[in-house]
Amino acid sequence: MVVEQKIAEVIETSNSEFLAECYDLDNVPALGSMVRTKGKGCQIYGIVYVSATHSIEPGRRIAARGKAATSEADVFKANPQLAKLLCSDFKALVVGHSQDKAIYQYLPPSPASIYSFVYACSPVEVKQFTQSLNFLNLMIESRSTVAPDEVIAAFLRYASLTHPVPEEFLVKAGKELAWTLSNDMRRLDSILKRL
Amino acid sequence: MTENEKMNTKLGTVISGSLTQGVHVKLDPARSVEDVTVGRYVAIQGEKKRFFGMITDISLEAVDPRAMVMPPDISVPLIAKVVSGTTTYGKLSVLPMLTISGVAGDTEGPQPAKTVPPHFARVELASQSDVQRVFGKEDKQRFYVGTPLDMETRICLDMVELVKRSNGVFGKSGTGKTFLTRLLLIGMLQKSRTTSLIFDMHNEYGWEGTSEKDHKVKGLKQLFPGKVAVFSLDEKYDQRRKVKSDFVVKIGYDEIEPEDMQMLRSVLNLTDLAVQAVYELARYFGDDKWLQSTLDLFDSGDKEFAGKHNIAEGTWKNLLRGLQMLQRFKFLVPHAPENTVTTILEYISHGKSVVLQFGGYDDIAAYVLVANLLTRRIYDRYREMVDIAISADSKKPDQLVITIEEAHRFLNPEISSQTIFGKIAREMRKYNVTMLVIDQRPSGIDEEVMSQLGTKITCLLDNEKDVDTVLTGVSGKSELKSVLSKLDSKQQALIFGHALPMPVVVKVREYGSADSYKELGPSSPGDSTRKTDGLDDLWG
Amino acid sequence: MTLDITQVYSQIEAMAGDLKSHQSDYAQKLELAQTTLKSIPPHQDRLKKKIEDARATWLVAGLKEEISLHRAAVPCPDDFMVVASDGSHIDVDRHHSTRLFLLNIGLVELQYGSKPDAELLSLPTLYFGDEMQAIRSGDGKQALIEGQLLGIKRGVEECRGLADRVCGGETDLPVVGLIDGSLIMWGLVGQRYDDFIVEQLLDEGLLKQFDRFYELNGKRKAVIASYISFPRSADVVNALRLQICPYDPVDCDNKNCKGKFEGRGCDVVGGVLDRAVFAGMLSDGERSAVFSSRSSIIERYGVHQVCFFYLKLEEEVARVEVPLWVADNNKLLDLVHAVIVDQCHKGFGYPVSLSEAHEQAVVTGADREQFWDLVDRVMQEGSLAVQQSLKQRSKKTKWL
Description:
The complex is a heterotrimer of chains A (195), B (540) and C (400). Chain A has 195 residues and is of the alpha+beta class. Chain A has helices at 72-78, 82-85, 123-129, 136-141, 148-160, 166-180, 185-193; strands at 6-13, 17-22, 34-39, 42-55, 86-99, 102-104, 117-120. In chain A, strands 1-2-5-4-3-7 form a six-stranded antiparallel beta barrel. In chain A, a hairpin with a 2-residue loop joins strand 5 (86-99) and strand 6. Chain A is globular, with a radius of gyration of 18 Å. Chain B folds into three domains: 3-134; 158-250 and 338-527, P-loop containing nucleotide triphosphate hydrolases (Rossmann fold, 3-Layer(aba) Sandwich); 253-327, no CATH class. Chains in contact: A-B, A-C.
């Protein structure tokens, strides 16, 4: 059995999303990838919608340091403290949860627990979760992300690869989107063009 | 049926509709509108009943009308796949025609639909068994004419039932009327005791005819040598084609009656006065001698006769021109050695069908003259035979089907009431004579005659008036209209009427290949009692 | 109504004008100071003796190296460490019923070279109760720690944190410990603190930490140094005054210039700061000669006697202070010099380790408020009465 590698920890949480700080600087899950964490009595699934690397102190500006360096790695070598003063984190949109092996594609009763570990979902998990696509609603309706369409498209591209015929999956997902966005052709079009 | 197969046959779901206008079906996203065609059969599974109907229209719909203003970019294959069935979808109009037993074990046959299936009922392509339940299996009475569109199931016509009424084969030129007719004639020969008299204007039925692709197809005589006789009006034609006809038809002047001239009025360009003059001449010289005598008058250049009988000079000249045209026909002789009518009837009474080939005389005037003249006499004799049989309480003669082409020449509203064909269409069912009329302009045929036709088999028609005429009095006319006008120009026909529980579009069965002849001969599937014919050796 | 800035404006203008009038005067003085410095002969024995014998009003630098020396930094070792410490505090609040204070020590350990690494720590300690908040003598005297004394206490704790960190390490890499400010406990100078206080804070406090560094040198190079940005000291200029002073031996107050504030011979360089003198004499990265501090308190420092040199950086001249045992060891001195130049370079002019230590230590106004709120809340939860002075309340709430 493969020991799962935790990648981050929940540091801000609400019913609909959570913020997780990565253990490794600059090693954030990809936009649109699927992560899992724990809530009260359930596993919570989220989709990464924004990730960032920034100073751990609000208001402290990061200065460029590489003018004299020959490579980007040298910057960290010459300034070892940077790794401790910067952090990478990401926000994930909650898209469903599982309890006793059953997957529910709607918000869990309670938010992800603070400080709970976050794991990247395996392709098998993603495939299982995406057997049904009701959760796309949650993503479309989300107001938290500035570019929900990018996130949806990124996620679908990523999820499609876990299915035996990615093309088929994309069509199925596209149709699901089309139902929801039947009154917004332009948006539908823009998402589909990114698939 | 496995889930997968179910998915494969599912077409869509009922979303609205009415009994009179048909139900609307939203096409399943997995289906492309391009895969469904008008005229296809569908089965709709209601809660208690299974409905059987036909696709009569296909339309495109959009959930959001804005999609029409800003069409999605379907050059991206994914987008094209996604929007179909979601943002945009196909809508089918389905006319539910019958209810077929919904409950297993229900043996009740198909009934006309008196209600519609409920909302969201599942619509699927009709299965083989659905179609069979409606149209029956091929058997000793049922003749396989073709398959429904996109299906393998055989659609069969009950030939015995079919010939009890006059029928029509329509379709614009080049759509395969002849081909269909030939098949129907074969069906009659194979599946019923019917005999046929075929006025074969273009020499297409008896011997080899040419199919549209120019390769030769066998004629009736070749397929049913024992049951078919070929009569010919033109020996020279027979010699050129190197065939030997069973009988060479000659018609004597003494056989042409004024009624025949009336029929020829338009083809010979006779004036009404000229036709009146014929009656006058017949009264004077007698029905059997008027033509010979008149021709003699013309030959002698006698001008007083006309004046004496108040026939204007113009009229006289008009008549002269008409009769001169008749004289070109070599089959007309002053006196025929054998009576053709009698010979035909003799064959027919022995169960032999007669194909009368016109040979080189593929002239409408010859056709009208001969068909009319012979039919009238045969009709009289047949009627006599039937009357005798009724009074003697003995067996009536077998059903006789007279096949005529260019039917509007005989059955147009102006003359149909006077011609023998109009009469047959209207009343001769009881005398066991019916017609198979073939025409490309059905609008030229008297409405009353049309309404008397039991079953109509029509290929593509594109003239609005023709379509209207053919469909007069059929329920679901407007829906059938769209079906009819969208038929392929080859090998497809809409069949509706008496011999079928519901209208059907068929892809006409193949005819002309070596394989096809195996099933088109005297014995065929379902034909267990092959009739043996004692007359074979007479003409052998 | 708060400060009326329009009224201040004219005064600021007056000030600027006054400064301007002194400008050329100052430039003259500076030039003279530099000329004087350069004129001192290499052996400088006379000046040395004059400094030793002088009874001057001013704090005069002790000469250890040739006064005009300037030396570029050697390269840093391949692998080395810098540990820096800084502190801040929340002082006793007279208006608050509970007497307590908080020290927050920020520590930064940076490792450079083949295995770069960093450790950033913030170590807050709450001091409460009599024992923790007072300095006691063996014979029953005690002084409460607050105000200025707390500042001194903080300095000691910064240094203790630094020593703890460096001595706790398991590596043998050369290490430079840095603190912000001076190694000299100026707070104790001039104040009449009881001897037990000085003893506790300096002898038993700060110098004990220096000892730990000193002892470490058995197994690895370990240096403690302090960094003073924008120094206002004039020790070296004061030595120049002695050079200029016509009297020998010098005895300003008692004999030569008794009661004079102006017009003394040495005033020709008066008002010039050391950093100004060296700004013109050193190139980037160069250090000045090492001097020793002759402050009265230094007598107690023993082996840790504070020495210093000035360092020219791109933007300023800083003062670096080291104990005598560093100043006397060329290798250690070079190490300090090299590392601080490198640190300043990485920190955009100020040692990066110190600025990070400051970031770790800093207690903002908001932090302060949050701290007191938390204290109040916990006390209330423990059913302990909390009293606030009315003055404190009135500051929080502005009545109309």
